[in-house]
């Protein structure tokens, strides 16, 4: 599941662990996806209620995984693997839309593995911070024999350069923090203190006092194909500070 903490104007979304090995990997099944979407909806409502206040969001996790992707064990549990897989793919798409349309800067503090849909979840943020010594970014689909949902293709196409995309999506390359920085995917790779660096970055961004609606529309404009694929509408917003 997940929890939300608010420190000043910084929202901290944490994917939490329990004694279930699957959930310790923060695998994205319909229950977890719905829980995250509910949390994001509440965060967005609070931000919208205070349009003259600047906010930021950090997403982090407990345990050694950021997210190990879709919950394939859950998909196999009822004997309806393909139906359940499509259910997860379809329910995850609006969660990506939630992040792309969120009216504040977003930071993924990646303290462990981010694989497949977990990688896509991290990539839906504006900034990605990773540890150098723990965790990889990995798209496993080519290795396990699955194609990508079209919104994955568009997300990576608009956010990741061609050569890096080829290595990640067509060769299944496992990317550590330093290499992620070189490939232009990760903003910073740190020895430790990823979450603390995320807090510092969030504080720096909040000081800009940006209008959240303007920020969200600029983000959507930067990724027009992704916005279209996700069904997000775009509009002109003027909240002049001149």
> What is the strand arrangement across the widest sheet?
1-2-3-5-7-9
- First and last CA, distance: 43 Å
Q: Please trace the helix and strand order, writing H or E for each element.
A: EEHHEEHHEEHEEHHHHEHHH
What's the architecture, going by CATH?
Answer: Alpha-Beta Complex
Q: How would you sum up the global shape? A: globular
Number of helices in the DSSP assignment? 12
Strand count, sense and closure of the main sheet?
6 strands, mixed
Mean pLDDT: 94
Pathway: Lipid metabolism; fatty acid beta-oxidation
Catalytic activity: a (3Z)-enoyl-CoA = a 4-saturated (2E)-enoyl-CoA; a (3E)-enoyl-CoA = a 4-saturated (2E)-enoyl-CoA
GO cellular component, one term: peroxisome
Protein name: Delta(3)-Delta(2)-enoyl-CoA isomerase
């Amino acid at each position: 599941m997940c929890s939300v903490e608010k420190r000043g104007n910084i929202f901290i979304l944490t994917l939490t662990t329990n004694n279930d090995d699957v959930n310790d990997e923060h695998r994205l099944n319909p229950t977890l996806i719905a829980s995250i979407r509910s949390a994001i909806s509440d965060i967005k409502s609070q931000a919208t209620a205070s349009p003259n206040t600047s906010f930021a969001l950090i997403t982090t996790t407990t345990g050694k995984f950021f997210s190990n992707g879709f919950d394939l064990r859950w998909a196999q549990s009822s004997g309806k693997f393909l139906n359940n897989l499509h259910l997860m793919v379809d329910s995850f798409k609006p969660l990506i839309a939630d992040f792309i349309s969120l009216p504040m800067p977003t930071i993924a503090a990646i303290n462990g593995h981010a694989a497949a849909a977990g990688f896509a979840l991290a990539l839906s943020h504006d900034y990605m911070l990773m540890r150098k010594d723990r965790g990889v970014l990995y798209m496993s689909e080519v290795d396990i024999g699955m194609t990508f949902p079209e919104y994955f293709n568009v997300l990576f196409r608009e956010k990741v350069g061609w050569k890096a995309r080829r290595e990640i999506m067509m060769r299944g390359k496992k990317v550590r923090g330093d290499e992620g920085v070189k490939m232009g995917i990760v903003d910073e790779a740190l020895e430790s203190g990823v979450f603390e660096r995320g807090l510092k970055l969030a504080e720096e961004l909040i000081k800009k006092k940006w209008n959240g609606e303007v920020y969200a529309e600029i983000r959507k404009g930067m990724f027009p194909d992704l916005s279209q694929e996700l069904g997000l509408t775009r509009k002109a917003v003027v909240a002049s500070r001149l």
